[in-house]
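> forwarded from #structure-qc
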């Protein structure tokens, strides 16, 4: 069975140039519902382009 991911939101302050650094690991327990399951993050809904923490980006949507 594929575990169900939960919606989670993470905000960070602009570090200049319109980008911020996000510690994606801060979201793991929110995304996995506290189960302790590993969480992988992607920048596309097909889950083909994995991104890693820390993630430096302008505002964007990630998928787990």
């Amino acid at each position: 069975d594929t575990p169900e991911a939960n919606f989670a939101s993470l905000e960070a302050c602009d570090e200049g140039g319109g980008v911020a650094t996000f510690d994606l690991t801060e979201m793991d327990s929110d995304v996995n519902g506290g189960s302790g399951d590993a969480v992988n993050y992607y920048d596309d809904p097909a889950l083909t382009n994995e991104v890693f923490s820390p993630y430096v980006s302008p505002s964007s949507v990630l998928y787990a």
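QC bot note: The longest strand covers residues 20-22. Helices lie at 28-31.
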